[in-house]
Specification:
The chain is an alpha+beta fold. The chain folds into 3 domains: 3-84, F0F1 ATP synthase delta/epsilon subunit, N-terminal (ATP Synthase, domain 1, Sandwich); 86-132; 136-173, no CATH class. Helices cover 22% and strands 45% of the residues. The chain is built from 2 helices and 14 strands, in the order E-E-E-E-E-E-E-E-E-E-H-H-E-E-E-E. It has helices at 89-105, 112-132, and strands at residues 3-8, 13-19, 21-26, 29-34, 40-44, 47-53, 56-62, 65-69, 73-78, 81-83, 136-139, 142-145, 158-164, 167-173. The strands form 4 sheets. A 5-stranded mixed β-sheet has the order 2-1-9-8-5, with no helix packed on it. Strand 3 (21-26) and strand 4 (29-34) form a beta hairpin. Helix 1 runs antiparallel to helix 2.
């Protein structure tokens, strides 16, 4: 069964098509939506939205917003929606640095609205960086590069390469 996904920003309609499933960064955690899902309206946090269409998974970075889910449709209203090729790492890093510098000079008790705005800017920039760098995982200072691991269930085992401390190790991954 299929589900109609529509993603809209204040500037334009980003996406409108039939998909198999959708994963949303909800304010209280990730939501997985399939057709015939119960109706709901929820707040979205900045993060990665994924959808599957024709066996291929696509991910985009979104900002805060809202999702309306019915049995046949998911409508996303968000202040930002960018694909990996649209994200400029240097600009996102610079935005985080500027916002953190401004945050450090504010009185958090007096300027609560400005603090919230800067924190939202940081969260959106981090969502962009996470999507852009999603294949590079840093864990306890050890970088691991995972190849060919899209966000979906695998029916077969796959092999990947892990780069760890400058050497490549072949590993085996199993589907969840």
């Amino acid at each position: 069964m299929s589900l109609h996904l529509e993603i809209v920003t204040p500037e334009k309609k980003i996406f409108s098509d039939t998909v198999t499933n959708v994963y949303l960064p909800g304010a209280d955690g990730e939501l997985g939506i399939l057709s015939m899902h119960t109706a709901l309206v929820t707040a979205l946090a900045p993060g990665e939205l994924r959808y599957e269409k024709g066996g291929s998974v696509t991910a985009i970075a979104i900002g805060s917003g809202f999702a309306e889910v019915t049995q046949e449709k998911v409508s996303i209203l968000t202040d930002m929606a960018l694909g990996g090729d649209e994200i400029d790492e240097e600009k996102a890093e610079a935005a985080i640095k500027r916002a953190e510098e401004q945050l450090s000079s504010l009185d958090h008790n007096v300027d609560a609205e400005e603090v919230a705005h800067l924190q939202a800017m940081i969260a959106k920039s981090l969502a962009q960086l996470k999507l852009k760098r999603r294949n590079l995982w840093c864990l306890n200072g050890i970088a691991s590069l995972w190849l060919a691991l899209p966000w979906r269930r695998w029916k077969d085992e796959i092999s990947a390469i892990r780069l760890c401390s400058g050497r490549a190790d072949a590993i085996h991954c199993h589907a969840l």
